[in-house]
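question for whoever is on the cluster today: can someone run the full assembly for these? two chains, 445 residues total. i dont have access anymore since they changed the login thing
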Amino acid sequence: MQTFTYARPATLAEAVATLEAHGPDARALAGGTDLIIRLRDGSVSPSVVVDLKRIAELRPGIRDGDGWLSIGATTVMTDIAADPRVARQFRALAEAAAVVGSVQIRNRATLGGNVCNASPAADTAPALLVYGAEVVAVGPGGSRRIPIGDFFVRSGETTLARGELVTSIELPVPARRMSAVHLRRTRRRGHDLASVTLCCGVDEAGVARLAFGSVGPRPILAVDATGVLADAGAPAEAKAEILERMYAEASPSPRSMRASPEYRRAMLRVLGGRALRIAIDRLAAGE
Amino acid sequence: MSDLIPIRVTVNGRARAFDVAAHHTLLEVLRDDLQLTGTKECCLVGECGACTVRLDGRIVDSCLVLAVESDGGEVTTVEGLAPEGGLSRLQAAFLDEGAVQCGFCIPGQVMAADDLLGRVARPTVAEIHEGLAGNLCRCGCYEQITAAVTAAAEAGPG
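^ ran it for u. tokens below:
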């Protein structure tokens, strides 16, 4: 592996100062399951690697707030998947966290890392979009909240500014009863990146949200407020028309080795329809 | 050459203090500096699990952990699962079930299986498959590996 300087800040202020001073020459290290691969293959070559795991303010953990569930940026997938509050209120996020990589990867990979890496295939992204999550970032200018829909730009690129880092991801407890599900398609069962990763949520007011990743440069959220998608009794043709408009947002890369654009679009339809049915069933069952 | 950084790590129950290069992984340090070569280097992208070790109570791919990140921590490698010269019940089950062909993936498989049995005393076949999904076996001994984990679970801890 190429050489670099290792920084282990003890405070958030110190981390921000180091990231700001070095700009694109610094990389933040959380779980390392993406970064260390890229350091080794040379696709990134920072002069400084800033380890965020010894910062007091960034200790991992999930906290209940006033109408929000706050997930610390360094919280690993294993702990998100196992958290009873996440399972109860944000089940699709727990489902997504549970299928990231393998046990070994989930023990290391963090939610903050998953969003900051901004992979189009990030499994937590669709659920975060459906639940209307906000990313809390701290930088030289202080703290700000970024709606998750404004956070992803393209693979590896976010709207974080120089010197900014993510401290937590916060999920608003839905005001209305809402049920969601995460589904994905992989080349093989077990440990693989998704060819399509998708989340669908419906609420008691009839709003349906469908978010999907791995079918374009960034994960996408589409919302249907007509009540048709969420209505178990609505005609299939009416639903298909709305869903087709949503799927039209997908723009899968023809250069990916994982799946062809045709296959991804076909699987998007299969998973989208399936997820919608599951979300409706869960809402009806009060799950 | 990056600077050497002093770290303290407990490895297989023994407290160690030594210097590591910032860009050296835990895998490299275990194998090259501590001569604990049971942990294998293979894919180096976190897909095969041959480098699985326990770090602070949880299994990780040691190829994706910088050695310096383990500072202050506790590492268990396959060499630390049983007293020297002995075998744990799980390791013995791997032999009894014929789960070892070429053997290269086995230290990682055993570490993942040991972790699984620590969390789930009597795992189902589905739980074994999920628990060991991060460990690939090129010889295709999955049936025997699953049987070994089941046998070890039935025999109880030890």
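summary bc i know u wont read the tokens: The longest strand of chain A covers residues 194-203. The mean pLDDT of chain A is 96.
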